[in-house]
């Protein structure tokens, strides 16, 4: 590894020093993550309310979710958290090339998640677990309340998939920028900040999986 | 270095042939539309929300026009429903919520804490564009197509029964929510990380405290309503059924999610107003603010308690009575920090060197109307009385006393107070006082009769009503014309003053605070010499015998 | 290729993320097992508790909150406190209807 680069942050005009800029960026990302948490929390609240109002329908619907695909996807995201941590560690060491590789690995694992997710949706479709499609018969049509929970599953997982898709896109963009010489000298903190976002998407999935797939079985 | 020397430092004489301020930095339209200067973005917001205010006010005028006759002859039912929806949607989402934070907050927050700019200037510009996109989109929807759900979008009316343009209106409101979040995020980070040396927390002006509290509400509450509105869109598009009782869903759940944001949103609208009043009163009483720390704690207290009281909007909708009891009890707790503030303001005025300039007139009006609005809120928080006056004009009058009597008066007071700082020009004082009095008078004539109407049982959102209510309705509509005149005057004379007003000195009111130490209007990076704060907030001269 | 010194340096920094990774996978394995087998009716409470442990692990170690200043620690908890308010106050309604 001979490509060890100096690391640093280019000072933006409004700040007086780099430490201030780093503090601001970290706090900014944490503030954004607060909003992400509350966004998903509304869906978890609905899951709990449905469980209270219609316990049997919710259990029935949860048993039709693809438990093992969800579990595999959780493992995939936990792996991607490890590679993201690798990117952060290597960025701090100034190993720019290794960092880019870690970022690409993270993006690949994120994409793998999306592929599994797509396959899961496909399975749901062929098993007639799509109550929102008016033209398609619904597997649990005898149990009307069950479709509320199934719809909630779609909203929650689609919202997460949307976050992951933007996450992968931003990660690829960052990796593209980070090939340039001296990137770590100017923008090392972008990797740190982005890392927080990625870990938090994983965190949200851990919550979605446990609450939607596991706890209501 | 002494206090005096710190704050009377004059900028070096300009060597250019134009003034060195943010307004004259560049003149092109491009330099405004792509600016990342927080002051210019504040002005962009000011222009935008003024336009939205005019639209919302016209709709309100038409609503009052329709209510002059009891038999609903002036508009059809549909038109009337669309009109009050335009009024509500525009005033709440596109005027009141961004009003003080996005305009004064953007302009003043960095000035008040001695920073060069907000922490994320580009994000700030982005939030303006997000705001404009959502707002113009929704506005086009509610004006061209029309929506009849009211600003609250309650299910199942908004999901099942309304056949108006609900989905596009919802999408626009969701988009505007993101602009609130971005502004809030920027303010939180700025207050935490960008304060000038020596500006510790208990040296910040109350206005900054209220901006901080408001921003936390933006961050913690907005995402929940975003999700609730997304689910409404899903409900209409795919019939997912979560709020649909026919499938076993629960419309009350929507109201829980809606009010988890929308009750705290009341404090998004009110807290900044309180901040403005806390700046105006010490300046025009020439006295240190009474109980500074208590006002700070009351600000944070209000911003927290407000998250525990939303169920008082839902006493008659089928919520469990135990929940209603809890929410009712907690709602009374709101009165405590509110009263702390009112007492502190009046104690500040007490024995002060009072100047009744326009901003002070607005501030005095604010205190009176806020007390009336706040106390009637306690009626509504009482379970038994709410059964009687729920969804009547009593509620309408109550929240207009808070929203117009509170926020709107604070907005106008602040606009006059900081106008010299924004523009470098003084407004005509006589006209200012006349319109402040007109607004106070017009407001009370418009809304006081509505308390009586509501108590007698006139429901809100109806335009056909029994004949015995006509007199009070006519009185209310007559008052709204006085109010309209009071609004039109400032629009004219403030514009006039941009070219013909007297040049403003850097501190025309002899007020304290970092924003008054820099020139009017401020230079591009706010301060020629970065300030160092070694003085206490509101350090107005202490008279003999006065305890601090 | 990496020199032995670099390998040691990398491992010194990667040890914590690697342990975090292993712990998270172990928690996941427990949750998946009991979620699949459903050994007793109140198993959801155990699953919830393990989810809380996973959240804490990600926050403290993956996101390094443990090394951050008090302000960031505060912000990382704040959101969860507000989620608790949302759930708590709404549940007063639903459990007493």
Structure description:
The complex is a heterotrimer of chains A (217), B (548) and C (97). Chain A has 217 residues and is mainly α. Chain A has 6 helices and no strands. The radius of gyration of chain A is 21 Å and the shape is elongated. Chain B has 548 residues and is mostly helical. Chain B has one domain (25-516): Cytochrome C Oxidase, Chain A. Helix content of chain B is 67%, strand content 0%. Chain B has helices spanning 3-7, 29-33, 38-66, 77-113, 121-145, 157-161, 166-193, 206-238, 251-285, 292-305, 321-349, 358-381, 383-389, 393-423, 429-456, 470-500. In chain B, α3 (38-66) packs antiparallel against α4 (77-113). The longest helix of chain B is centred in the first third of the chain and has 37 residues, at 77-113. Chain B starts with a helix and ends in a 48-residue tail after the last helix. Chain C is mainly α. Chain C is built from 3 helices and no strands. At the A-C interface, α1, α3 and α6 of A face α1, α2 and α3 of C.
Summary keywords:
heterotrimer, A: Four Helix Bundle (Hemerythrin (Met), subunit A), 6 helices, elongated, C: 97 residues, mainly alpha, 81% helix, 0% strand
Largest interface, with counts of residues having CB < 8 Å to the other chain, equals: A-C, 46 and 47 residues
Strand content of chain A: under 5%
Main structural class of chain A: mainly alpha
Taking the alpha carbons of the first and last residues of chain A, their distance comes to: 49 Å
Provide a concise account of the structure shown.
Chain A has 217 residues and is mainly alpha-helical. Chain A has helices at 18-53, 55-63, 67-93, 96-126, 146-177, 183-215.
Describe how the helices and strands are arranged.
The complex is a heterotrimer of chains A (217), B (548) and C (97).
Chain A: H1 18-53, H2 55-63, H3 67-93, H4 96-126, H5 146-177, H6 183-215
Helix pairs in contact in A: 1-2, 1-5, 1-6, 2-5, 3-4, 3-6, 4-5, 5-6
Chain B: H1 3-7, H2 29-33, H3 38-66, H4 77-113, H5 121-145, H6 157-161, H7 166-193, H8 206-238, H9 251-285, H10 292-305, H11 321-349, H12 358-381, H13 383-389, H14 393-423, H15 429-456, H16 470-500
Helix pairs in contact in B: 3-4, 3-5, 3-16, 4-5, 4-7, 4-8, 4-9, 4-14, 5-7, 7-8, 8-9, 8-10, 9-11, 9-12, 9-14, 10-11, 11-12, 12-14, 12-15, 14-15, 15-16
Chain C: H1 4-37, H2 43-62, H3 70-94
């Amino acid at each position: 590894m001979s490509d060890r680069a100096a690391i640093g942050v280019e000072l933006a005009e409004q700040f007086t020093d780099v430490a201030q800029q780093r503090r601001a960026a970290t706090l900014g990302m944490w503030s954004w993550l607060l909003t992400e948490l509350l966004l998903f929390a509304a869906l978890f609240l609905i899951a709990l309310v449905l469980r209270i109002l219609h316990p049997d329908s919710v259990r029935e619907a949860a048993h039709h979710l693809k438990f093992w695909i969800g579990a595999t996807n959780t493992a995939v995201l936990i792996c991607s958290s490890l590679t993201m941590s690798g990117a952060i560690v290597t960025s701090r060491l100034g190993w720019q090339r290794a960092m880019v590789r870690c970022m690409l690995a993270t993006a690949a694992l994120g994409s793998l998640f999306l592929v599994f997710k797509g396959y899961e949706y496909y399975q749901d479709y062929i098993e007639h677990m799509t109550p929102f499609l008016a033209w398609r018969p619904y597997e649990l049509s005898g149990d009307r309340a069950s479709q509320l929970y199934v719809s909630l599953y779609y909203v929650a997982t689609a919202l997460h998939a949307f976050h992951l898709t933007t996450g992968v896109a931003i990660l690829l963009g960052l990796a593209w920028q980070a090939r340039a010489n001296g990137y770590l000298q100017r923008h090392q903190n972008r990797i740190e900040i982005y890392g927080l976002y990625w870990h938090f998407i994983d965190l949200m999935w851990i919550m979605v999986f446990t609450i939607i797939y596991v706890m209501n079985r | 270095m002494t206090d005096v020397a710190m704050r009377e430092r004059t900028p070096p004489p300009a060597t250019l042939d134009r003034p060195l301020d943010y307004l004259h930095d560049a003149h092109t339209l491009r330099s405004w539309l792509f600016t990342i200067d927080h002051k210019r973005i504040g002005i962009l917001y000011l222009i935008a929300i003024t336009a939205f205010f005019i639209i919302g006010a016209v709709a309100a005028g038409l609503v009052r026009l329709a209510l002059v006759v009891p038999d609903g002859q002036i508009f059809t039912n549909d038109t009337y429903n669309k009109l009050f929806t335009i009024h509500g949607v525009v005033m709440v989402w596109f005027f009141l919520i961004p009003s003080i934070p996005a305009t004064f907050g953007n302009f003043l927050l960095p000035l008040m804490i001695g920073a060069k700019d907000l922490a994320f200037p580009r994000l700030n510009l982005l939030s303006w564009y997000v705001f404009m996109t959502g707002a113009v989109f929704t506005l086009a929807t509610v004006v061209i197509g029309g929506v009849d759900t009211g600003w609250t979008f309650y299910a199942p009316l908004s999901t099942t029964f309304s056949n108006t343009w609900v989905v596009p209106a919802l999408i626009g409101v969701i988009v505007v929510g993101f602009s609130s979040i971005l502004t809030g995020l920027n303010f939180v980070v700025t207050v935490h990380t960008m304060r000038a040396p020596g500006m510790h927390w208990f040296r910040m002006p109350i206005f900054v405290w209220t901006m901080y509290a408001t921003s936390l509400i933006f961050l913690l509450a907005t995402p929940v309503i975003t999700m609730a509105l997304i689910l409404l869109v899903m409900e209409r598009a795919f019939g997912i059924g979560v709020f649909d009782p026919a499938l076993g869903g629960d419309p009350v759940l929507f109201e829980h999610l809606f009010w988890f944001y929308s009750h705290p949103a009341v404090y998004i609208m009110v807290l900044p107003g309180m901040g403005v009043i806390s700046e105006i009163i010490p300046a025009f009483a020439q006295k240190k603010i009474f109980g500074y720390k208590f006002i700070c704690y009351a600000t944070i207290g209000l911003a927290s308690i407000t998250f525990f009281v939303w169920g008082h909007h839902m006493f008659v909708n089928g919520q469990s009575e135990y929940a209603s009891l809890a929410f009712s009890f907690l709602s009374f707790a709101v009165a405590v920090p509110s009263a702390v503030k009112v007492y502190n303001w009046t104690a500040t005025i007490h024995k002060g060197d009072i100047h009744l300039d326009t901003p002070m007139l607005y501030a005095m009006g604010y205190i009176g109307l806020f007390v009336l609005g706040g106390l009637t809120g306690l009626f509504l928080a009482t379970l038994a009385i709410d059964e009687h006056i729920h969804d009547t004009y009593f509620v309408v009058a109550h929240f207009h006393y808070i929203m117009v009597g509170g926020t709107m008066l604070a907005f106008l007071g602040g606009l006059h107070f900081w106008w010299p700082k924004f523009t470098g020009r003084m407004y005509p004082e006589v006209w200012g006082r006349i319109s402040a009095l007109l607004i106070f008078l017009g407001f009370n004539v418009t809304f006081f009769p509505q308390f009586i109407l509501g108590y007698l049982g006139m429901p809100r959102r109806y335009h056909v009503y029994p004949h015995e209510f006509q007199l009070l309705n006519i009185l209310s509509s007559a008052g709204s014309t006085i109010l309209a005149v009071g609004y039109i005057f400032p629009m004219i004379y403030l514009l006039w003053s941009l070219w013909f007003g007297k040049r403003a000195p850097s501190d025309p009111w002899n007020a304290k605070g970092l924003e008054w130490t820099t020139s009017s209007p401020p230079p591009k990076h706010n301060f020629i010499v970065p300030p160092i704060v070694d003085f206490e907030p509101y350090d107005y001269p202490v008279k003999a015998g006065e305890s601090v | 290729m990496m020199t032995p010194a670099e390998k040691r340096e990398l491992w010194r920094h990667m040890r914590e993320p690697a342990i975090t990774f292993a712990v998270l996978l172990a928690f996941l394995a427990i949750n998946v097992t009991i979620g699949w087998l459903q050994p007793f009716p109140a198993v959801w409470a155990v699953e919830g508790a393990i989810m809380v442990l996973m959240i804490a692990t990600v926050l403290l170690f993956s996101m390094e909150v443990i090394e951050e200043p008090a302000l960031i620690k505060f912000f990382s908890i704040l959101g969860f406190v507000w989620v608790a308010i949302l759930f708590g106050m709404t549940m007063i309604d639903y459990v007493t209807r």
